[in-house]
Amino acid sequence: MSKVMKTDEQALMPRLRFPEFQNEPAFQWRELGELIYEKRSRNRELRYGKEDVLSVSGDYGCVNQIELLGRSYAGVSVKDYHIVETGDVVYTKSPLKKSPYGIIKENKGKPGIVSTLYAVYSPTAICHAAYLDHYFSVEYNINSYLQPLVNKGAKNDMKVKNSDVIKGGIFVPGLKEQKKIADFLSSIDTLIAAQVEKIDALKIYKKWLMQKLFPGEGETVPQLRFPEFRDSEEWKIKALGDVCNILQGYGFPNEMQGRYDGEYPFCKVSDVSKAVAVNGGLLNEAANYVDSEDVLNLRAKLIPVGSTVFAKIGEALRLNRRAYVNRECLIDNNVVGLKANDDTSNDYFIYLSSQLIDLNKHCGGAVPSVKKSTLETVEIALPDPFEQQKIAEFLSSLDGAIAAHTEKLEALKVHKKGLMQKIFPQP
Fold first, then answer.
1. Domain boundary among 382, 403, 419
2. Is the residue at 100 inside a domain?
């Protein structure tokens, strides 16, 4: 591709363009109603059933609702649902975090139906639907296009007529160039999807191996053992209190709420949950911070790097939420930390804690929670230090492979994002 750029009121050149289109006219400003038109096909004859209802996702596009969500959320009747053919364009009148005015997606899969909360359009003779799908997958493009057209109600619902959705305008090239751009970006999506599959396969493989490399409850020999340890003695049953240090949290002082400038994160259950959800389980930040003087005044002990921290109360306990500390921090008294003692490999203990320790089995009280005295008596099976290290090194190598593939995935996403900024011209 070559770099070109010029603009006037009705035409715009992209910064990158495929060689065969270098001498073509600039992208033209067109009302979306010239590119797509509203469909009014209803499921009156019940051609499709509840099993054919589609959901529209920012990440996955138009997909079968049961396949995406595990069940159908259709109403009692689907007679008034809109019919969506392959290649149709769907607008969702539902806000998403990154797309507060809804999203616009092409149906690349099987035909189906969507509820009346969606608007359905078909491409005209001068529009390639996949081009629009890629164009509106850029957050800036979708939000800047829809914001002037959509009024949001008191309940954050969309106040916009289906006919008004297509009254805005965008810059588009000719049909052949639209297809070329869409095919090119789809090829990158294929690479990204393949990379995601590799990562998911490695994670599944690791999970399966961990189930085999650690003994089951009440057992002292794992199903899989490295050759050099197959004739070794059985693993020894030990109390958790003899294997690791159990680290207590501290009551969070209200006056420290909203402190963002301290040296150490002061982690609550919500911070543990966030680490699991968005940071691969690594705990290195929090909503509140304290400094060294605060630590002294609280007479608190910092949770060392390498500890495993668990939520020990509430919904996060039920979900068995845990995170791994890679920055010294404090934890509040609804969180508990475990750190291997000097007789146990900490690298091994991190994997052991993720596989064998489920605090749900040891909680009690009207509001389920876990006591330190209970944790200290929990029994686990432990091999000798050499086998511990072998297991930890092996699983660590798998983690390294997962991390490398994840890094490659992120690089592909960044590369695609950079290309889209140059392929789609902006005024």
1. 382
2. yes
The tens digit of pLDDT for each residue in 29-41 reads 999 999 999 998 9
Contact assessment for residue 14 and residue 2, using Cβ atoms and an 8 Å cutoff: no
* Any domain includes 205: no
Residues 143, 47: one domain? yes
Are 69 and 143 contacting, i.e. CB atoms less than 8 angstroms apart?
Answer: no
Q: Which residues pair with 124 in a beta bridge?
A: none
**Residue 329, helix vs strand vs coil:** strand
Computed from CA positions of residues 285, 57, 416, 24, in that sequence, does the dihedral angle turn out positive or negative?
A: negative
Q: Which residue has the tokens 């799908």?
A: 133
Scored b (16 or more CB within 10 A) or e, 166-177 reads beebbbbbeeeb
Residue with tokens 């963002």: 260
Q: How far is the C-alpha of 378 from the C-alpha of 336, rounded, in Å?
A: 14
Q: What is the spatial distance between Cα 176 and Cα 24, in angstroms, rounded to a whole number?
A: 11
The band of 6, judged by pLDDT with boundaries at 50, 70 and 90, is very low
Same domain, 344 and 272: yes
Say if pTM beats, i.e. exceeds, 0.70. yes
- Residue spans of beta strands (DSSP E) within 118-251: 118-123, 151-152, 158-159, 169-172, 236-239, 244-247
The total number of structural domains in the chain stands at 2
| Parent domain of 105 | 25-172
Residues 251, 373 within the same domain = yes
Pairwise CA distance, residues 310 & 269, whole Å:
8
Q: Which residue has the tokens 């491409």?
A: 123
Q: Is the pLDDT of residue 289 over 50?
A: yes
Q: What is the CB-side half-sphere exposure of residue 92 using CA atoms within 13 A?
A: 21
Q: Give pLDDT, residue 9.
A: 61
Which residues touch 422 (CB under 8 Å, ≥6 apart)? 3, 14, 15, 16
Query: Same domain for 160 and 261?
Result: no
CATH of the domain at 277: 3.90.220.20
Joined tokens for residue 166: 């297509």
5 located within any domain: no
Q: Are residues 151 and 252 in the same domain?
A: no
3-state secondary structure of 418: helix
Residue 68 makes CB contacts below 8 A (sequence gap 6+) with 55, 57, 60
Residues 6+ apart with CB under 8 A from 240: 246, 338, 357, 375, 376, 377, 378, 379, 380
Residues 58 and 150 in one domain: yes
Instruction: Tell me what the mean pLDDT of segment 300-312 comes to.
Output: 88
Nearest Cα to Cα of residue 304 among 346, 275, 366, 262 = 346
Q: What angle do CA 357, 361, 366 make, to 5 degrees?
A: 135
